[in-house]
């Protein structure tokens, strides 16, 4: 079954995978009635603004996941936009990955580690906490329907690099700041999937593949188009069996 969420919120939507989500969501056979694209600086997000001009369903708002006041202001905007529908789908996409070096232990600083945890872990958690009433509102309107992102869902955009088992097996010791933050985010998805299930809200962590974006680099394996096409297929078809799992954009379950 294809995704059929009436209201969607995406963080980090000004470029990369977030921007590609917006591009593909508006082209779905059942596109969202309200697609809220959030980013730190809407005025400089020229590609995103162009999409909004071409589609009345796209609403661009300011949301900085590091700043609680910004999250609260965004909540008020989104609440007014979705009205009685609530929020069907929250895609926590905003993230950072500092790749100035290999990220070994001797290259870490407290500020570097905290920056990654603030944006990659605390940010998505506080955003989810803040928007939870709107997710619960959407879920309550479809109580008899099974868990799905068309009903009410939270997707944490993570990475296979956050898998403890894969990291241990591969033996890679670099990028401590990024890998530990993505491991924590995946654990958050596992915990939230249990906590929010009683509210009828689906939660999963999703690995988009190694993608040719500013973060992934020019030599990455997949295009943003192919990655998000796969992500949306997974998001649209995932049910209770995938709740709380670490998923790939190809629909596979990874070990955590």
Notes on the protein architecture:
This protein has a single domain, classed as 3-Layer(aba) Sandwich (Rossmann fold), CATH 3.40.50.720. The chain has 7 helices and 8 strands; from the N terminus they run βαβαβαβαβααβαββ. It has an 8-stranded mixed sheet, sandwiched between helices. Strand 1, helix 1 and strand 2 form a beta-alpha-beta unit. Helix 1 packs across helix 7, helix 3 packs parallel to helix 4 and helix 4 packs parallel to helix 6. The longest helix has 31 residues. It starts with 6 loop residues before the first strand and ends with a strand.
Number of individual domains: 1
**Main β-sheet: number of strands, strand sense, barrel status?**
8 strands, mixed
User: Which whole number gives the mean pLDDT?
Assistant: 94
- How would the global form be characterised? globular
Named CATH topology: Rossmann fold
Helix amount: 40-55%
Overall structural class, as computed from helix and strand content, comes to alpha/beta
CATH superfamily: NAD(P)-binding Rossmann-like Domain
What order do the strands of the largest sheet run in, or round the barrel if closed? Answer: 3-2-1-4-5-6-7-8
The CATH C-level name is: Alpha Beta
Number of helices: 7
The CATH level-2 architecture is identified as 3-Layer(aba) Sandwich
Which regions contain 5 or more consecutive residues with pLDDT less than 50?
Answer: none
Separation of the first and last Cα atoms: 26 Å
Which percent range describes the beta-strand content?
5-15%
- Per DSSP E runs of 2 or more residues, the count of β-strands stands at 8
Keywords: NADP, Oxidoreductase
Protein name: C-factor
Pfam family, one: adh_short
GO molecular function, one term: oxidoreductase activity
